[in-house]
Structures
1.
Amino acid sequence: MINSNTAIYAILGDPISHSLSPVMHNSAFSHLNYNGVYLAFSAKKIGKAISGIRALGIKGAGITIPHKVAVMEFLDEIDDLAGKIGAVNTIINRQGKITGYNFDSIGAVKAIKEKTGINNKAVAILGAGGAARAVGYGIISEGGRLIILNRTKDKGEKLAADLGSEFCPLEDFKGLKCDILINTTPVGMEPNVDGMPVEKKHLNKGMVVMDIVYNPLKTRLLRVAEDMGCKTIDGVSMFVFQGAGQFELWTGKKAPVDLMRKTVLKALSCSS
Ligand code: NAP
């Protein structure tokens, strides 16, 4: 029950109305009888939102599009991993001192490792945005051989240089051989569900194909890959594992991962 001791958590982003973080975290709080509530705030100015977190004693927050990099200058401390990735997706408020973390990277690694190993695998990431940065960092840390493919050359080259990986223009994907293919572009996401970031003829059966887009759960890329006999990894796994990291940081309790996954899948099936 909500009372004057309820710990408040939030997600800060813009747009935010489709976020599944509130339903996922609230179900976990309630499952563990944790006196907390998680709310979504549409935050246009992240600096002001962080001042609000301080002023109101909000205990922690998820940070999402478009604030994952911009938020960093308003925090008191950045955890090592988030500093290396160069983006924050989670903050915690410890008696007024706000520290930034990043769980996107570990979320992606855990989702991949449920299905396949990463060490020494050739991994192609499509996209060079914030998510690609976190996922790419995770791949390199796990000993994967990374190649970044992006539509905008400068942006892709910059990310590849930062991560110490190779770069290839997205249109040159056709001849590329890889063990794991990861889409981090929004191509295929609602409402443009017919989109596919690479053509079917350039996929092959031996690839493990991951899409970090989770709405729809089975993107066209994943459906096509599955039909070809590829192992696939959906975006909900990464989302839930990053959420589990946030939950454990904030509450000090083990996250009920299975329940969080079921809750997100149910919310997705209701919205489709
Ligand atoms: P972002 O920073 O805006 O980056 C988007 C990237 O996708 C850019 O590299 C962009 O290329 C590329 N792109 C966009 N539209 C494209 C198109 N039509 N064709 C080819 N490339 C295109 O976004 P982000 O924060 O990385 O997020 C990307 C996606 O990941 C979103 O759908 C988000 O919901 C999802 N996501 C999922 C999770 C999860 O837990 N499952 C976590 C984070 C994000 P240019 O450089 O050429 O513009």
Note: Residues 128 and 212 are 13 Å apart (CA to CA).
2.
Amino acid sequence: MALIEWEDSYNLGIEHLDNQHKGLVKQINILHAAMKIGKGKESLDEILKALINYTATHFKSEEELFFQYNFPDSKKHIAEHEKFVKEVLKFKEDFDKGRLMVSIDVLHFLKGWLINHILGSDMGYKSFLLSKGVR
Ligand code: FEO
């Protein structure tokens, strides 16, 4: 069973952002599956890199829309993105140095952060961007 099952309540109604969120869920599920079957460090490293790159692309997409439409809460939202990126990069650094394993705790952190962020902060821009005609 996948660590995260996509639910309709996660949808924003903005297609490319919803697709990116689904992509992030997929990346975390891939990491979870790889950890469960005991994949080696090299494979986990590749998956982590893909997750980090995908996250950066997604945050950039949201932030570009914030600037384009002058979203009033962008500062707080971007700060959340930056904090998450910092934590994941720190995790990756520790993983690279052999100080940390990909564990179920790490996966639950990623899952918790993503779902809480989508349902909390991302839902906070939903009606604003929809009102600007973004789909
Ligand atoms: Fe969908 Fe603010 O990340």
Note: The domain at 11-131 is CATH 1.20.120.50 (Four Helix Bundle (Hemerythrin (Met), subunit A)).
